[in-house]
Amino acid sequence: MWELYFVIYNKPDQEIDVVLKKFKKIEIVGSIKWKKIDTVKLTSVKTNLNVDTKTKFLFVKEKNNKQKIDDIKIYDPNDLKKICE
Predict the structure, then answer these.
(1) Of the candidates 53, 54, 56, 61, the residue with the CA atom closest to the CA atom of residue 79
(2) What is the pLDDT of residue 77?
(3) What is the structure's pLDDT at 85?
(4) What is the pLDDT of residue 72?
(5) Which residue in 43, 53, 61, 67 sits closest to 18, CA to CA?
């Protein structure tokens, strides 16, 4: 069984911070913006994470429950704490 592994995804027109592949297929992509969700340009995040994969995420310093991006999950440190417990 193939495990996920980290790869460097370097394209000049896309800013992607996290890329995890399984065999040769990208499984997870993510962006990290260390600021409040209200100050993040969500349209640019959506454009940057426009990769053919099911799992996309945005990690921010602080989120609110009102902000949503189509198929991108939004996490903050509180969510990470819950996952790790």
Answers:
(1) 61
(2) 95
(3) 85
(4) 93
(5) 53
Annotated domain spans of the chain: 4-84
**Per DSSP, what are the bridge partners of residue 14?**
11
> According to the model, what pLDDT value does residue 81 have?
93
Sheet holding 55-62, edge to edge: 4-6, 18-22, 25-36, 55-62, 72-75
| Residue 54 pLDDT exceeds 60 | yes
pLDDT at residue number 2: 65
Rounded-to-integer distance, Cα 8 and Cα 66, Å: 32
Using left for φ > 0, alpha for ψ between -120 and 50, and beta otherwise, residue 23 falls in: left
Quote the tokens at residue 53. 């994969």
